[in-house]
Design brief:
The complex is a heterodimer of chains A (131) and B (207). Chain A has helices at residues 17-20, 24-35, 37-79, 91-103, 116-130. Chain A is an all-alpha fold. The relative contact order of chain A is 0.04. With 207 residues, chain B is mainly α. Chain B folds into two domains: 1-111, Orthogonal Bundle (Rna Polymerase Sigma Factor, Chain: A), CATH 1.10.1740.10; 125-207, Arc Repressor Mutant, subunit A (Orthogonal Bundle), CATH 1.10.10. Helix content of chain B is 66%, strand content 0%. Chain B has nine helices and no strands. The chains are: A mainly alpha (131), B mainly alpha (207). Chain A binds chain B through residues 1-3, 5-6, 8-18, 20-25, 28-29, 31-33, 35-37, 39-47, and chain B through 1, 12, 14, 32-37, 40-41, 44-45, 48-49, 52-53, 56, 62, 66, 69-70, 73-74, 77-78, 118-122, 125, 133, 136-137, 140-141, 144, 155-156, 159-162, 187, 190-191, 194, 198, 201-202.
């Protein structure tokens, strides 16, 4: 209370309930804090729940998401059809294939096996024939 | 709960926000938001008198001012998340107090100003002193009636609560010059109205 700078002094302290009752403001504070107890308790609960709730909400999201991802990966792994192995061709076959497919003509009927020289000659004849 | 504050060293009112020994309002507000009882109690302790003064400025009744101030603290706690500038909690609280006091007046628009009997004091004065106190208080209350609401707020917060011009300006959102001006005219008006009483007290004091 500082009304010392008033001249003449106005006795404003008469309006202060604490002036005539020293315990007034202490009781006032006690009453207010007591009346506020439910709201303070609610806020404390809310503050505590917020932290645990955060962890819980994370776990609620993360666990099913992880399980779903694992299941999807397993399904993909087991049910994806194998890619057909790429057909291997010899150089000669490739060359023939290119030539024949390119011109749309049929392959020579037979390449007899066993005689290398005869086979080679037949090959040349076939190639020449194609040309 | 961590962060419980020891408030015993605090001044009950008039604590500067930037006072090194005092915990700043913003910190108390933050803790009160989390339900810290001591922090909320600290805010009540710090601003109960000011809240009462502002409420009294509007209601001009001690009983109503007490009810309004008490209620305003509870409302402030419920809405504390809406306090966007916790460092200016006092100004925000005073707005709540003022609004609730005005609502009360509106609700009780037809009412008779009465003198409220003394509250339960541990050391009551004798009946003669009590009567004199009641009479003086009635004179003072009547004198306060001659002031505007803002003048009453300013003079009570400055001369009764000990708030500085700067603090009043900041917390009531008024220019400091306006605060000084209100204070000057409020004191002048009170002195004029209370002149007979003040003259008598002055003579009594000189004897």
């Amino acid at each position: 209370m500082s009304n010392h700078d008033l001249d003449p002094r106005i006795p404003l302290e008469l309006l202060d309930p604490g002036a005539s009752d020293p315990g007034y403001w202490s009781r006032f504070r006690g009453r207010v804090v007591m009346d506020a107890a439910p709201e303070l308790a609610r806020r404390r609960r809310f503050a505590e729940v917020t932290i645990s709730d955060l962890v819980l909400s994370w776990s609620r999201l993360l666990v099913p998401a992880t399980v779903a991802t694992a299941a999807a990966a397993a399904l993909l792994l087991f049910f994806t059809p194998e890619e057909p192995a790429s057909a291997l061709m010899d150089v000669e076959e490739l060359l023939l294939w290119e030539t024949v497919e390119g011109d749309g003509e049929a392959l020579p009927a037979v390449f007899p096996l066993g005689d290398d020289e005869a086979e080679f000659e037949l090959f040349l004849v076939a190639v020449e024939g194609l040309q | 709960m961590p962060g419980i504050v020891e408030f015993n060293a605090w001044k009950p009112s008039g604590v500067l926000m930037d006072e090194p020994s005092g915990i700043e309002d913003a910190e108390l507000v933050r803790r009160a938001r989390d339900g810290d009882r001591a922090a909320f109690g600290g805010l009540v302790e710090r601003y109960s008198r000011a809240a009462y003064s502002v409420a009294f400025s509007v209601t001009r009744s001690r009983e109503d001012a007490e009810d309004v101030a008490q209620e305003a603290f509870l409302v402030a706690l419920q809405r504390i998340d809406e306090c966007r500038r916790p460092s200016r909690f006092a100004g925000w609280l005073m707005t709540i107090v003022r609004n609730r006091a005005k609502n009360l007046i509106r609700r009780e628009s037809i009412r008779v100003m009465d003198i409220v009997p003394e509250t339960a004091a541990t050391d009551r004065p004798n009946p003669r002193e009590q009567t004199e106190t009641v009479r003086l208080r009635k004179l003072l209350t009547d004198a306060m009636e001659t002031l505007s609401e803002v003048q009453r707020e300013v003079v009570l917060l400055h001369d009764l609560e000990g708030w500085k011009h700067r603090e009043i300006a900041e917390r009531l959102d008024l220019p400091e010059g306006t605060v000084r001006s209100h204070l000057h005219f409020a004191r002048k008006a009170l002195r004029t109205t209370l002149a007979p009483l003040l003259d008598r007290e002055s003579k009594d004091g000189n004897r």
